[in-house]
Amino acid sequence: MLKIVPDPPPSTESPHLLEDTLVQATEYVMCALAVAHQSFNHLPKSPATLVMLTMMHELDATRTLLESALAQLHMSTRPPSYTVH
Question: Which branch of life, at top level (predicted)?
Fold first, then answer.
């Protein structure tokens, strides 16, 4: 999918470089899933349907792993919260 606003150039000095990369990878996977879904809707009885369904399943698994990595990154960068009793 064509983006209206281009991504800013990556900076190796940014402390959020890994997070930015994971977010960008997730966006690409979401775009690929949308294209695959549209292709599936246009060719529901094609012999390639099984391959497209498999590809969609693998892309969805990749999206889940990327979201999990983002969540783990957020948990590791958040300072520990202590409660006072």
Answer: Bacteria
